[in-house]
Amino acid sequence: MTNGKNNDLLLVNIGSTEKFPINFQELEQAAKEKLTTGPFGYIRSSAGGEETYRKNIEAFPKYSIVPRFLNDVSTLNTEVTIFGRTYPHPLFIAPVGVNKIAHEDGEIAVAKAAAKYDFPYIQSTVSSYSIEEIAAATEGSSKWFQLYWSQNKEIAFSMVKRADQAGYEAIVLTVDTVMLGWREEDVRNQFSPLKRGFAKGNYASDPVFMSALPDHEEETIISSIVENIYHPSLNWDNIAELKERTTLPILIKGILHPEDAKLAIEKGIDGIIVSNHGGRQLDGVIASIDALPAIVEAVNGKIPVLFDSGIRRGSDAVKALALGATAVCIGRPFVWGLAADGQAGVERVLENFLQETKVSISLSGVSNLSQLRNLKIVRN
Ligand SMILES: Cc1cc2nc3c(=O)[nH]c(=O)nc-3n(C[C@H](O)[C@H](O)[C@H](O)COP(=O)(O)O)c2cc1C
Question: Which atom of ligand 1 is nearest to the CA of 44?
């Protein structure tokens, strides 16, 4: 790939008469104008006093890129290979549930936009649309399935099997959400997407979940989702059970401690995602980017280390990649794009994100991701 195209695109955007929010604050504002208080608050807010949410954002400027010049950067190769599959760039869609609260087309719109821009799509367990619906809408594109464990673990195994059958390529087990974080905004707004039925895409279509219910009334389905999503007993033995039930690679999402990263490797886990859930779970935890370097060191290249929480623009992605992330997942920015303008809005967000990332890599003076990993980053 050459770099001429990237620069052309920037100029094309400047010439455009179409108005669309560019940066995160503008996107959030545009979404706010479209959404009612409950859904907007659910997406925007985090747990407790939102200390971790703020830390995630404020931590990035502490890391500075020290670029090199006079390296010919006229070609750029952003390819990354994970579990034997090569992706054109290291940018993924983070699992975000209940997308219908942002837009009627929900996850279908996001997955289609992701497919168009080659962002592998990680589908949430608590999606508004099902695994099969998303697979049918985006045939051939790369998809992983994010798993929330279930009180009735046969439901979890059933969803994993369905994801495998639908062509999903990996399972991402989220371990930081054994119960919901203390989210004051949702209490204030009396808004729970789970209780309003926005999370049922994968449950109402699951034969194991449905056959365990006394009846198929909406209320019964919803109360059983709420019951099953609470799984405080999750532990390493469950990981061993999950490994027995699938041949797909398994990643653990929510790792913040290097010892947990080492344990994951010991237990045969195939990859991890360093994440604090965008500050939505335990408030007061370490900024995700601050947790990354020690985890990269502990993992020592044995398994892929993906990253999310606080990524707002391309230069954030460059910092995370330079600090050793194999790939980076984007969360809230695409949700605001979805709220602002459905699939077209997500496309604009992903396109700008991808182009800014490419320009930022080239302006750092490197031409591929292994060179990027050797880029000097200083902590001020
Ligand atoms: C509205 C919303 C819903 C989310 N739903 C899920 C989910 O279902 N499963 C999951 O593992 N993470 C979920 N996350 C967390 C994201 O995967 C990701 O960790 C987080 O968005 C990163 O923080 P950032 O968006 O501030 O960068 C959700 C995040 C948001 C904002």
Answer: 31
Number of neighbours of residue 126 by Cβ within 10 angstroms:
23
11 CA distance to ligand 1 middle (Å): 33
Whether pTM > 0.90 for this model: the answer is yes
DSSP state of 35: S
- Tokens representing 367 are 């031409």
Distance from the alpha carbon of residue 309 to the mean position of ligand 1, in angstroms: 8
Tokens (6 digits) for 379: 């902590």
CATH of domain 4-374: 3.20.20.70
The ligand 1 atom at the shortest distance from the C-alpha of residue 95 is 17
Query: DSSP string covering 242-305, please?
Result: HHHH--S-EEEEEE-SHHHHHHHHHTT--EEEE--GGGTSSTTPPPHHHHHHHHHHHHTTSS-E
Please measure the distance between the N-terminal and C-terminal CA atoms of the chain and give it in whole angstroms: 34
Mutation probe of ligand 1 site: the residue of 96, 121, 312, 332 with most atoms within 8 A of C-beta: 96
Domain residue extents for the chain: 4-374
pLDDT tens for 248-290 read 999 999 999 999 999 999 999 999 999 999 999 999 999 999 9
Ligand 1 midpoint to CA 280 (Å): 8
CA-closest candidate to residue 135, choices 116, 149, 121, 150 = 121
- Among protein residues, the one whose CA lies closest to atom 28 of ligand 1: 96
